[in-house]
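Ticket #4471: structure output looks truncated?

Reporter: J.K.
Steps to reproduce: submitted the chain below (120 residues) through the standard prediction queue, then opened the result file.
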Amino acid sequence: MTAYVIAHLQQGEPHPEVFEYMERVQGTFAPFGGRFIVHGGATPHVWEGTWTGDLVMVAFPDMAAARAWYDSPAYQEIKPLRTRHLPGSLILLDGVGPDYDAAATAAAMRARHAAAAADR
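Returned output as attached by the reporter:
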């Protein structure tokens, strides 16, 4: 199942190390089958709530590949070029398959909630 690395980065001052990171990061994806899905920069259309910063999403074939990329010497070497200058959060999560059904997920959650309430 596809896994996603999602970064919500706050904007910082332009810095040569950030430019170097951007020039090198995509090359670290190749051995692990990663590819950009979203790469910040554009101003998002905010429908609800507030938003600051940039969003970056990278897709990997699976969780093992995403973890291997993040832990790779190639990525660990360049990571400080970003983290020294762009504060933010980075998460890793599994996507859902093509047969995912939100209503079925809600039904399972509802059943667990009802069982927990009955046990109280």
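Triage note (M.O.): checked the attachment and the full token line is present. The chain has one domain: 3-119.
Status: closed, working as intended.
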